[in-house]
Design a protein that fits this description.
78 residues
Length: 78
């Protein structure tokens, strides 16, 4: 089982750059880059809440389930 971070899909669909999100959310750009590239292994819930709140301020209607996806063992995922 694993959790997939789908931030790349949200940013691409809404034409938001990783730098713009990091700047607006006031989080380290490397965090956003790692999430975008699927390299993040853990994320603080407060940070996730900040990212979601920032995306909403940027006009993106999203929830936690839009960013994170649980994939049980044996599933192809995505």
């Amino acid at each position: 089982m694993k959790v997939i971070i789908k931030l790349n899909k949200i940013l691409d669909a809404n034409k938001i750059t990783r730098n713009a999100l990091a700047r607006e959310a006031k989080v380290r750009p490397n965090l956003i880059y790692d999430m975008y590239d699927g390299k993040t292994r853990r994320i603080d819930l407060e940070t996730l809440a900040i990212i979601i709140a920032t995306l909403r301020k940027m006009g993106v209607d999203c929830e936690v389930s839009d960013i994170l996806e649980y994939v049980p063992d044996g599933s192809a995922g995505e």
